Amino acid sequence: MVNDPVTWIFVAGVLLLLGVATTVGQFLKGQPESGIKSADVETFNRRVRVWWLLCSLLAAALFLPRSVTVVLFGLLSFWALREFITLTPTRLSDHRTLFWVFVLFTPLQFVLVGMGKYDLYSILIPVYGLLFVTARVAFSGDPKRFLERTAKIQAGLVLCIYCLSLTPALLYLDIYTSKDLRLLNEAQQNPTQFAAPAAWGKNALLLFYFVFMVQMSDAFQYIWSKILGKSIIAPAISSTRTWEGLIGGVGSTALLGAALCWATPFNEWQAGCLSFVIALVGFSGGMAMSAIKRDRGVQDYGTLVVGHGGVLDRIDSLCFASPVFFLLTKTFFTPG
Amino acid sequence: MTGPLIALMAKLISGASARWVDCQPNTRQRVYFANHTSHLDSLVIWSALPSYIRVLTRPVAAKDYWGKTRLRRYLAGRFNALLIDRRDIKVHQSPVDMLLREISNTDSLIVFPEGHRSAGEQVGEFKSGLYYLCKKRPDLEAVPVHLDNMNRILPRGEFLPVPLLSSITFGPPLVLEPGEQKVDFLTRARKSLLRLKDV
To answer: A157, A171, B144, B159: which has the fewest C-beta neighbours closer than 10 Å?
Structure first.
């Protein structure tokens, strides 16, 4: 990985882009008469700072053991869940259910991911976790708004823990290019005639590519909305998300994704399609999280308890995109 | 385990972010008074103070909780708690003199003038202890401290905390005006605390 020129080119490209974004942001900050609202510049600069953080995290993943990446994503998930549950009003009788969610399911999910136990981590939360929450809330003996309370805790568990945990799980897949996958198939049928090809092997780079594409799709849809945005999709949910932003953002992401396919095990078409799906699902994730926030009447998760950063505001699209990307990669690019 | 480690643990579990509104951290003698929603309150406020103030600050904590097991007694000792038996508080046997003796001329106090934990978001009426503290020591500054969301982290009757997020707001200090009546002072103090909810 460290000696791979493709990885270095990709990292250098991302660093260059971040450098340009930082320079532009700082330049605009010093130009109050540029015609751009200072609040927009401030938002932009804040986003750039988060991108630096995420990218340094992923760059570290290229050089450190993969278990370190799992732990870092575990901490990120944990923080997201804290914000989610803090935002969601729960009743005091839900206390012990929440205790197990935080103390048992959250760490266990990431331990299983770190052990590469796909059979267990893919169902721990969707099956055992959801059943446990339902039953434990019933055992608390408080029937008031039972289904609503159960659903809130389940949503937090699935969105913040399960979905996010599938991002570092990418590191543990045996990924092959389509061509190698065919060769592998033949080799398995005729072990004497064909040698089995090696797995692609640069999973940390794919992880970097994926998170980068999600962040870029956020940026693209924001830019398209600013330039062309007229038809707001759902004014009561989000006042900034427009159809123009969605179409432009998804299109640009697909093109960029295809153009960067050399950093992935996919060809142009595959990378383009996957980026298309990532952008679409990520956008939907942003919409869903906005809906939750509006329901609670808050602007950002960060302002909910004063003084906190709002991790969930930044990773809402990642939460939705990561299970989809993981499962598509697993279905089509790993041996059966 | 030492003080700084306990403070770090408390910060991690409570996810508390401290804000100082019209008030600066200072080593002069103060009475921090806060709304009481959880057994962790005293520990969390103490942890939120800068370390050079922390060593000079003594939180008042309930003896029936913090004195109950060996671990809790040990922790309470490490965060400098003054354990008070709430059942023993009577008009003629108030702990005010004991508290003033303990802090002498150096330390600050963290008190909960509601006397008991409120069930939810409401802040109950203040007991008179805060007034007598300030009356006997008019040089003490009373600093309102508002705790938000602590009651969900460790609610009444539970012994295991859920690590959600909370916030602690320190407000502008009050002093007892010469000739100010007990009711007036306690009302003023309570209002100054409630006001911090919305800043």
So the answer is: B159
